[in-house]
Amino acid sequence: MLFFTQCFGAVLDLIHLRFQHYKAKRVFSAAGQLVCVVNPTHSLKYVSNRHAVGQTSMEQGSLHSHHPLERVHDPQLIPCMCPLFSCQWEGHVEVVVSHLRQTHRINILHGAEIVFLATDMHLPAPTDWIIMHSCLGHHFLLVLRKQEKYEGHPQFFATMMLIGTPTQADNFTYRLELNRNQRHLKWEATPRSVLECVDSVISDGDCLVLNTSLAQLFSDNGSLAIGIAITASKVHAAEAEM
Amino acid sequence: MLFFTQCFGAVLDLIHLRFQHYKAKRVFSAAGQLVCVVNPTHSLKYVSNRHAVGQTSMEQGSLHSHHPLERVHDPQLIPCMCPLFSCQWEGHVEVVVSHLRQTHRINILHGAEIVFLATDMHLPAPTDWIIMHSCLGHHFLLVLRKQEKYEGHPQFFATMMLIGTPTQADNFTYRLELNRNQRHLKWEATPRSVLECVDSVISDGDCLVLNTSLAQLFSDNGSLAIGIAITASKVHAAEAEM
User: d(Cα B136, Cα B143) in Å, to the nearest integer?
Assistant: First the structure.
């Protein structure tokens, strides 16, 4: 009888251990998603001349308009300004990535799905949180900006840009997701090209926009987690199959 | 030989017809979703006293706070103000629906998933688009409001409220979806109770917020289509199973 009781106990232990193992595995999988802690970029000075140039070029073209030089040159040799507001650098599209890494120390993350964790959300506007995201054979730039479009009322703007031409950007879809406090917000769109101006995208409001109170609801201890995913759009996927 | 050719032709025809049938069925399903055209509510006058009362009561309680009278009375007999800004009516929760139908001529739609089509989005702020939505044994109120939180910059705010108590509201999740021009925006949250003030929800920004340019991108010929879905949250579903 004691033997059977011991056997039964051992079986119960095994069941318990198996349950614990699955539980641990689940937690590990959840934690397995790449989380990147992004600190705000420092000394971001807004240069009014640069802003004016960016806006004028945007006003001339429509949304997702093709860069005037795109038709003339090899896409990698198109001249391009640094997408960061504070920087006066100009060079070819093919060297923007190394410029952003070396000069601005912006990290590159690899993988189709990542979590962008922006810290110190309380810092006054203007503040930027920026990373590069490498997937599907391209580099993308995620910009989260705290800015006062209306004086005294800072808002958060998040957008993704392809480090490439508008035609290349049209082949992708990006998704930004916020999830907390029983609220869920999802924004999906075609990325814009870095040849267009980040500031114009934000001033147009054609991006994920959060007011301060909503950003607080989605934040945890002053940090905002944004889930990011990039997929090839159907046309591009169909082309790849051909 | 001719016989086999004819047979082959007949098989091809059958495949073609079957494909056409599935195609037609898919279109029918898409068109089968209930679309409700919602015109703006007229003569919406903002009463400052009423606003002040609403805001004060909201400031005293936390988000999703329980109505002070909820614990004392039968939920259906809790006194409640008309959720529309312009109206001074007060009565019990159980008669709010008939008041909204009879006095404000607000339509009731039935079904778990509907499309809310707000017309004349160009009208100046403040403007409201309102419908009632009946599903899962309850009535919900969808409010889309165009309002100038910052002077000269109208924004659109969309929220869903349960015509019931905050405790009842906690059992549901609502989803609002916008989809157009290769952009997709989704907001999911727990509905608030009509015992809380619609205006406080909107002034807190704890709802779907659209700036004018984004609303234009999602609009078609001056009308904005919002997909609405309501589901019972997990706790509620588990209770129903017990």
Answer: 19
